[in-house]
Structures
1.
Amino acid sequence: MNASTPPVLPDHRLAAGVTRLALRYRGHFCPETIQHVLTDSYDRLAAHAHVRTHLVVLAEHLTTERLDALAHIQGAPGTGLPRVLFVCSQNAGRSQLAAALLAHRAAGRVVVSSAGPRPAAEVAPVVAQVLAEAGVGLTETAFPKPLTEEVVQAADIIITMGFGDACPIVPGRRYLDWPVADPEGAPVDVVRGIRDEIDTHVTELLDSLPAT
């Protein structure tokens, strides 16, 4: 990225996000770099959005995740927790289930993120339903996100959900593939079974991590 010539913001409301993020990352990233990442995040999300009402807010959330990943790559203090990235094609079903379940079960032991090479417009409603039945909620940052280079590079463990060839290979990372069925279009009873299968994998993953 060329931080010296920031791009024109595609939405004037993003300027407030640049200001907020510049304060948050003062000493780590200059405003020009933040504007580059925020603009790129907005453009990536806009490419798949059917409704643009919340794009500004979502772009700021995605930018925060990407900047946190960059800070981790650069060795910023306080970023030493294991980082787990879940990847599925649209980041709307399996990877969202896995990320929510791991974040809930880990209770702060890991940093969890999810993404997909072809993100959908929204998380499948049935995903939120079966998670709620298990006492797990989706956060405001649980939306389909594009797979970006810095998030992959920052991950210690990268877990693909049924397809391994679409995820970049970074040396030194632990790669796993969970061959779980796609919940898209499936009846809710089937999706509950997928949730429980993923939850079993999550428990095994947590058991394999060093105690903190």
Note: The longest strand covers residues 83-87.
2.
Amino acid sequence: MIRRRSLTLLIIVLLIGVPAGYLLVSASQSRESGRDKENRYSATGLSAGWPSKVQRRIYEVDIPPKSSFVAYYETNNWKASRLYTQFRTTDKGLTKFLHSLGKTRADLNDGVTIKKRDREITRWSFDPAVHWTGLRHEQDDPRPSQDVTVDRTDPRHPIVYVVSATTP
């Protein structure tokens, strides 16, 4: 009789206790995952690192290999989605980046092409003493349009600022 009750107790523990324990562990992991995502998406301003390949493909921002000081920030709302990106590259990297937009260095005009609103969001400040060049690459919806501004202070290592916007 004791053996039978022990066996019944063991079966109950296995049938109820193990799944309950699994649910507790799973709920805890899910909560932690939600906190990680919340921290990542609540960031305001640029985050150091490369945007994902999917983001780069959607916004058509082809960051050249071996670029440094890469940072990005993405915003989404019902009107438009934007990817703000900055990176330091080489002279060849700048040429490659412009080529990915279907542009050349000859298309760069003097001045900053990034709008004041976008500068405020990213906290980019473009010193008037620096010689800035830029261009606006417009495309038909739903393809993104890019505003590109380049700091050519060090011609061998220009810093590129890109705002790529698309409407759903």
Note: The mean pLDDT is 84.
